[in-house]
Structure formats: C-alpha cells, structure tokens
Amino acid sequence: MPQYKTIEDTIGRTPLIQLQRLPGVEQARRGNVILGKLEGNNPAGSVKDRAAISMIRRAEERGDIRPGDTLIEATSGNTGIALAMAAAVRGYRMLLIMPEDLSIERAQTMKAFGAELMLTPKAGGMEYARDLAEQMQRDGKGRVLDQFANADNPRIHYETTGPEIWDETQGRITHFISAMGTTGTITGVSRFLKEQNPEVRIIGAQPSEGSRIPGIRKWPQEYLPKIYEPSRVDELVYVSQADAEDMARRLACEEGVFAGISAAGACWAALQVAQRVENATIVFVVCDRGDRYLSTGVFPA
Fold this sequence. Notes:
Strand content: 15-25%
Radius of gyration: 18 Å
Strand order of the largest sheet: 1-2-10-7-8-9
Mean pLDDT: 95
Largest sheet: 6 strands, mixed
Number of domains: 2
Number of strands: 10
Oligomer: single chain
Distance between the termini: 49 Å
CATH topology of the largest domain: Rossmann fold
CATH architecture of the largest domain: 3-Layer(aba) Sandwich
Low-confidence stretches: none
Number of helices: 9
Helix content: 25-40%
C-alpha cells in the first residue's frame, strides 16, 4: 500500500526564493542576495502552522491534553488560524480570543476550521485578550497552550525552520530577519543558526512608535513573551506602518509575492540591512499571505 501524506505532513519545508527586482542593481553590484522563506505555503497559510502543531502534539505526548478537550488561545490572527486547523485535524474544541479590530478574513478563516471566537474590545488590545484567556483557564473552561510562554513554540523552529534555511543556503546565510510577535520564530531559528555559525547576524523587525502592524508587536515589559531571549537577537530594526504597507504592495507588484504586512515589514528591514553590507546572504521570513488582509484596504480594491 502506498504511504499517503496527511495535511500535517505538508507543514514546513517551505520554498526559499530570491528577490529579483526590489534589491535593484546596486545590491547585485554589492554581491548581496536577498531571500524570502515562503511560510504562507503552509496549509493554514502562515509560519504559525509549525508552532501550532508542535504545541498540540507535545502537550498530547506529555498527557496534558487529549482529543475532545477545549483549547483556549489569545491570538492576533495567524496563530489562531493555525491552531484552528491543528485542532480540527487532531480532534479538539478550539476557543480563540482576539481583539475586535482584526481583519474579517482572519475571523472567517478561523470559523471555517470550526473554531469558536470571542472578540474583545479594541482598546484592550492583545494584552486584555491574553489576560482573559488565563482567567478562563483558571475558571476551568479549557486549557491555554500559551504561544507566548510555551517552549514548544521556539523548539519547532530550532528543529525545522533553522535547519531548512541552513540547508537551502548551503550554510551561506549571513543575516536572518524576522518580524517579532510571540518571538518564537526568531528565538528558535537564532539558536540553531548560531550553533552552526556564531557570526550569523539575527535581526528583529519591530514597529516604530505609533505604528500598528498586524503580527509585529513591541510588548510592554509585563507582557513580554516568556520565550523571548534578548541575547539571541543582535539588532532591532524599527519599521513604520506606512513603509510596511507600501512594501506589501511592492512585493506583490514587483516580485509576485503576495504577502502580509508583517512579512513586508521584515522585507523592508532586509533591504535596509542590504544597504550597509556586501557579499551577504540575507534571509527574511515571509510569515503569511496577503489574502487575509484584503479588507484592511492595504491592497488596491
């Protein structure tokens, strides 16, 4: 009998593609190569697919949860979609808590996978949603996987994303750039890449003052993700909302890469880094697809 794949088997091993037009002639002259890791090719459409299946599988292995249980998570979008997909595959009830101002496509996608949504006031942001999830767990209403403190989040990037990038660049990577939300991706990938070559520069993209970029957060100290290890990030690049949104449109129109706004922010940061280095292999994470941002008005109607 042939061995067929399940939807879980399609998570990871995403393409790494070279930008052709955005870097321009100058970067070619400098010997720089800018590469995007297309995490939107995962089955639920983002890099969060990796962490979602990792957190559920490992909680099962420890006996913390079992099919039929209710899982609760505060999310700004991509993790919620990924968890909704993973919960559907593995047989869990999924309750997602998210601020009411997030894009309608994200909410619709979560519901399509069978998740239940609880919307919280815009003014409270993700901080209020996280507090509410913890309170519901204390009240016995379900189990919080907690992407912000769960070591199985960065662990999967150490085990899969980092090795994939190292292999795909044949060890030539010099700079790695990721948007910072839960910080799971940048923490796990940094750990792996630094073990291979301590000289690889790890750069986090964060929003500039006053900017709201879905998927990129600058957390208040009391809400800083527990999985975040500042020593694993060499540099922070601050991205404005306007620059991220403009880059999302340019990625689509000039490179044929239909990506989300946080992915575009990471791309903008990669291009900034490229202006001050030579003979570099720069990899940034294209963390999701642009189709879940159509209602935001970022892309032309």
